[in-house]
Design a protein that fits this description.
Length: 437
């Protein structure tokens, strides 16, 4: 028996030693901040575009804070994690990071001091970036104003907050390799795949995760809950009444508005603003890639049948009615969401969204619709300069009545049965965010 225990102890010690060797990374030397003038303007400009399309500012800027100074709270199933300061401040930012240190963080998820980064930083996507793109991002960040902004304390509990243990997560779910073009696909498809899988890390939001937070690659782009919203599926399971065509998707990604799907809101709003900085050919490439993912590449998408059905549904309840939900809708919503055919194109009017066509109304989860009803859509989101007012002052019962009414009269989907819980969750999230949690 003693021999068995000794053998098991030896195996355990050997395993622990092997894990320690795997997990340990040395600190890289501190360097003086590079002279901003040492970077070619064209390289910096390229980095600016890449940073926009990688949403660096969205995640590394707190509400009301200085750009790239961190402090943005990201709620995860494991606790709230705050983004870090990536301005070139020497004490609290990355001002002492060499390009080698920056590259290691992007490719391996390891900070300059050798500590493991939490995977909320999408190094499991950024590892696909080319050397040239990483250099451009480094140059762009190093010419930004240095901002002293100490780290916020994360709320990840022990022992998950032990950085060394993040190596275990990497062992299970992180298998880096550079992007490899598919020779059977077009150049545009491969460019779109590079952007989607790497720089813009679309799967970070649109791919469901397992209990340990790893992306379920067998369900890539199948949709997931993120930041209190639902990132809709981008594959063939997308429930939109009008399938996404390449042109419609390119218009949405480039402008934030789709005639047949609605307006970008919530976490998707800064995404489209970032993608809009890319050259039009890159936005087209993303659309080329995703219509292939959705299975509509090369197919003709005729929106007419769905549009006719939506317009007919849109007239429901617009006359005299004594139905309470219908009256609520008529009073609060119908003045903007009326029959919105664009007389110039014959299609749906993008600024008068036909709700029967809207993604949020057709998802199995009502969260996105409730988020928009409670918070509205700001002029900076979605369609430029167009506002949807917030109705958060409505009672929970009134919000549920309108949502249920729209689901029943504008879709052929089963009724939502969890509206009360979802409304409570959206309000609770808003209250937590107001406290800075």
């Amino acid at each position: 028996m003693k021999r068995v225990f000794a053998t098991l102890a030896g195996v355990a010690l050997t395993g622990a030693a092997a894990f320690g060797i795997y997990a340990w990374h040395s600190a890289l030397p501190e360097v003086a901040r590079p002279d901003p003038a040492s970077f070619a303007p064209a390289l910096v400009q390229r980095g600016a575009v890449l940073a926009a399309a990688g949403y660096c500012g969205s995640c590394h800027t707190a509400k009301g804070g200085k750009p790239f100074a961190g402090g943005y709270a990201m709620a995860t199933p494991f606790g709230t994690i705050y983004s870090t300061n990536i301005t070139p401040d020497a004490r609290t930012g990355i001002g002492t990071w060499s390009q080698a240190a920056f590259t290691r963080a992007m490719r391996e998820g390891v900070a300059r001091d050798g500590s493991h980064l939490f995977p909320v930083f999408p190094y499991d996507h950024f590892h696909k970036l080319t050397d040239e793109d990483i250099s451009a991002l480094y140059a762009f960040l190093m010419v930004q104003p240095a901002v002293e902004a100490p780290e916020h304390e994360n709320s990840v509990p022990f022992p998950l907050n032990i950085r060394l243990l993040q190596a275990g997560w990497k062992l299970l779910f992180f298998h880096p390799e550079p992007f490899r073009a598919d020779p059977s696909k077009s150049a545009a498809w491969n460019r779109g795949a590079y952007l989607a899988q790497g720089l813009s890390h679309c799967g970070a939001c649109h791919t469901p995760r397992n209990a340990l937070g790893g992306e379920q690659h067998g369900k890539a782009f199948a949709g997931a809950a993120i930041d209190g919203w639902i990132a809709p599926p981008l594959d063939a399971s997308n429930p939109a009444p009008v399938a996404w065509s390449k042109d419609e998707l390119a218009a949405y990604l480039g402008t934030g508005v789709s005639r047949y799907h609605g307006t970008a809101a919530g976490p998707m709003a800064p995404v489209v603003h970032g993608l809009a900085q890319l050259p039009p050919a890159d936005v087209e490439a993303l659309a080329t890639y995703f219509v292939d993912v959705a299975g509509t590449a090369g197919k003709t998408v005729d929106p007419a049948p769905a549009l006719a059905k939506a317009l007919a549904a849109g007239r429901t309840g617009t006359g005299l009615t004594y139905d309470r939900p219908a009256r609520l809708y008529a009073a609060a919503c119908a003045s903007c969401h009326y029959n919105g055919v664009d007389t110039k194109t014959g299609g749906a009017h993008p600024l008068r969204p036909e709700l029967a066509l809207n993604n949020a109304l057709n998802l199995d989860d009502p969260t996105n619709l409730i988020q928009v009803m409670v918070h509205g859509i700001d002029a900076r989101d979605g369609a430029p300069g167009v506002v949807m007012p917030a109705f958060g002052h409505f009672s929970d019962a009134d919000l549920a009545a309108i949502a249920g009414y729209l689901r029943a009269t504008r879709t052929n989907k089963a009724p939502w049965t969890d509206l009360d819980q979802k409304i409570a969750a959206v309000r609770a999230q808003a209250a937590a965010q107001a406290k800075g949690e």
